[in-house]
Design brief:
Layout lengths: L3 H9 L11 E4 L11 H8 L4 E7 L2 E6 L3 E6 L5 E5 L9 E6 L4 E5 L6 E6 L5 H4 L12 H10 L5 H5 L10 H11 L12 H25 L27 E5 L2 E5 L10
Antiparallel strand pairs: 1-6, 2-3, 3-4, 4-8, 5-7, 6-7, 9-10
Helix pairs in contact: 1-7, 6-7
The chain binds a DNA duplex (14 and 14 nucleotides) through helix 6.
DNA sequence: ATACCTGTTTCCCG
DNA sequence: CCGGGAAACAGGTA
């Protein structure tokens, strides 16, 4: 379930382990989440270290550990973080399990699209430092959005919104939510957007990102009532505003959901 | 059985 | 070199 706010919530599930030493580490022998990272090295570097702090940026997470160690974590499509009691026994899809004296921190990812990274150094890794601006930052400006639309003029807006180079943390439901609120058809080409439409998108990106952080990021619940989120998942949903059946179709490589009345492709 | 899925990377095309 | 799109990755669920 991981987009911007769900990632922030998942990350907080490990807060209970901050300031505590790591006694033992379990790594899944087969999971893809390690990519080209050596399991042996990961276990060696994490064991005995103290978990110092955590942070998220879009869908990326970074944990700082004592001894100049840094653990990068991405949840992919089905990843999740939980904490449990010391008597915890590892489950089938547990990729990384961190045992502390009072708590156990679990990273589970059945589909294994997630990713772990290890970095040793006094400062955060380069990949973290070089992440694009966050949608929540003041530096995320209208001109930044305009430039993205100009550069990718031929892409459907839905596809552009999912591009993490510009919209860190945006995922499928957030993009549909933004387009629905801005009343923009997901297939509208980025270069076809009027100045007014671009401004609407810009404002709704900030509204949805902040709103999600407040509701989902705070307590792990769903977004507020009335959001498209609640009706977009399967066929048969009704537009909360226009009260007519929503349309679901693949656009920009992902299933998209929109209101055919509010979100028109052309003026006819 | 079949289709679908809140994500990213890789490969291929023009 | 680039931008854009499809396929691939893998397992659970309906």
């Amino acid at each position: 379930m991981p987009e911007l706010a769900e990632v922030a919530f998942a990350c907080r599930q490990w807060d209970i382990g901050l300031g505590k030493f790591i006694k033992k580490v379990h790594v899944h022998p087969k999971s893809r989440v390690f990519r080209d990272l050596s399991r042996k090295q990961l276990v060696r570097e994490l064991t005995g270290a103290k978990l110092l702090s955590s942070s998220t940026h879009g869908k990326q997470m970074l944990f700082q550990l004592s001894g100049n160690r840094w653990l990068g974590l991405h949840l992919g499509m089905t990843g999740n973080l939980t904490s449990d009691t010391p008597s915890y026994t590892c489950q089938k899809h547990d990729a990384l399990v961190i045992f502390q004296s009072c708590k156990v921190l679990v990273f589970r990812d059945p589909r294994q699209f997630g990713r772990l990274r290890l970095h040793i150094g006094t400062i955060p890794p380069e990949w973290w430092a070089n992440l694009p601006v966050s949608m929540l930052d003041p530096e995320f400006t209208l001109s930044f959005l305009l430039k993205a639309c100009e550069r990718h003029a031929k892409r459907p807006m839905k596809a552009l919104l999912l591009d993490q180079r510009y919209f860190q943390g945006m995922g499928n439901w957030m993009a549909d939510e933004v387009l629905w609120r801005a009343e923009i058809h997901p297939a509208l080409r980025a270069g076809q957007m009027s100045r007014e439409q671009t401004l609407k998108i810009f404002n709704q990106i900030k509204f949805v990102a902040r709103g999600a952080m407040k509701s989902v990021g705070e307590h792990g619940g769903d977004p507020p009532r009335g959001w498209l989120f609640h009706v977009r998942w399967k066929d048969g949903g009704y537009c909360p505003k226009a009260k007519i059946p929503l349309v679901r179709e693949e656009i920009g490589g992902r299933t998209s959901c929109w209101c055919p009345t509010l979100q028109k492709l052309s003026y006819d």
